[in-house]
């Protein structure tokens, strides 16, 4: 082999190696890009599943507590109905008005119930700071349990598991 | 070149071609897979944007019409309040009860307004089949416009742009 031929052979060998390296490198790069893209796709897919779950939960909550604002704003009106029913009447007109008020009250409570709102059970119950607000305590009389609610000053209301307004009560201690 | 040498050369050439084809094929396959994966990723990304927009719209609508069910269920109670206020009173008790009822009515209408519910403007307005239900027509009198609402038998209510209940009216024609 001449010197020149040797050089040529070496050069050829080098070229082949470079080509091979280049080919492997292109393949490797593609493989890596594919792997990265797959990763991005899988993360996007996971995000879609998360969003769907989050939104379903939100939709459920939103439906469950839908009545919250309006119901809360109507509690004063309901209090006033209760108060109007306490007024004594002594004639026919007053009686028929009272019947009308009673119908309104029943209608409101029915609509409230449909929306998930109910009065908090208070009188005779054990005081529960989550549902009741004690505005006064009186000494325990005979036959009363400790922490028993003996008077309700203002009714409380609950929407499913959310307190719209705690009941204002007097507790025996 | 001997016959054998020639065959060897041809075989070598074939092998090289096969390898080249194989390498191109691997590269091409990878490129195609990458392009497909990229496509899947972009579609997932677009789906995320769509979901977000859809849910924002849904959330807005849900907030806007949140009061719909409860408000609709309370219309009868409101009608009964109106009716109770029409009863004549002739004593103190009746008067104070009436004041109580008036307060309840104001309170309900205020809560309704906060929730986006308002009475449909009817008396003296031109009949609109989207908001009013004509239960009777009477001949046009002097000074009345054609299709003018001359009496409201039952009030109608609207929640933003949604009719909760059309007004029941008598129309002059």
Question: What would you say this structure looks like, in words?
Answer:
The structure is a homodimer of 173-residue chains. Chain A is α+β, with helices and mostly antiparallel strands and 173 residues long. Chain A folds into two domains: 1-64; 68-172, Roll (Nucleotide Exchange Factor Grpe, Chain A, domain 2), CATH 2.30.22. Chain A contains three helices and six strands. Chain A has helices spanning 3-64, 68-86, 92-114, and strands spanning 117-119, 132-138, 148-154, 157-159, 162-165, 167-172. Chain A has a three-stranded antiparallel sheet. In chain A, strands 2-6-3 form a three-stranded mixed sheet, with no helix packed on it. In chain A, helix 2 runs antiparallel to helix 3 (92-114). Chain A is rod-shaped and about 135 Å long. In chain A, 20% of the residues are buried. The mean pLDDT of chain A is 89. At the A-B interface, helix 1, helix 2 and helix 3 of A face helix 1, helix 2 and helix 3 of B.
Q: Please give the largest β-sheet of chain A.
A: 3 strands, antiparallel
Largest interface: A-B, 55 and 55 residues
CATH class annotation of the largest domain in chain A: Mainly Beta
Radius of gyration of chain A: 38 Å
Provide the CATH superfamily of the largest domain in chain A.
Head domain of nucleotide exchange factor GrpE
CATH topology of the largest domain in chain A: Nucleotide Exchange Factor Grpe, Chain A, domain 2
- The average pLDDT of chain A is 89
Give the oligomeric state of the chains in this entry, treating copies of one chain as homo and distinct chains as hetero. homodimer
How many angstroms separate the termini of chain A? 115 Å
Strand order of the largest sheet of chain A: 1-4-5
Structural class assignment of chain A:
alpha+beta
């Amino acid at each position: 082999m001449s010197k020149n031929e040797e050089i040529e052979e070496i050069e050829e060998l080098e070229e082949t190696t470079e080509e091979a390296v280049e080919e492997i490198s292109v393949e490797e790069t593609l493989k890596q890009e594919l792997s990265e893209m797959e990763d991005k796709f899988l993360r996007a897919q996971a995000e879609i599943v998360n969003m769907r779950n989050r939104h379903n939960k939100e939709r459920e909550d939103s439906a469950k507590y839908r009545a919250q604002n309006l119901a809360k704003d109507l509690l004063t009106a309901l209090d006033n109905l209760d108060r109007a029913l306490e007024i004594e009447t002594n004639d026919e007109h007053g009686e028929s008005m009272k019947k009308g008020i009673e119908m309104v009250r029943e209608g409101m409570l029915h609509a409230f119930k449909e929306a998930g709102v109910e009065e908090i059970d208070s009188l005779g119950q054990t005081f529960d700071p989550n549902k009741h607000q004690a505005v006064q305590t009186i000494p325990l009389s005979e036959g009363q349990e400790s922490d028993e609610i003996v008077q309700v000053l203002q009714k409380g209301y609950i929407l499913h598991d959310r307190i719209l307004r705690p009941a204002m009560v007097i507790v025996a201690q």
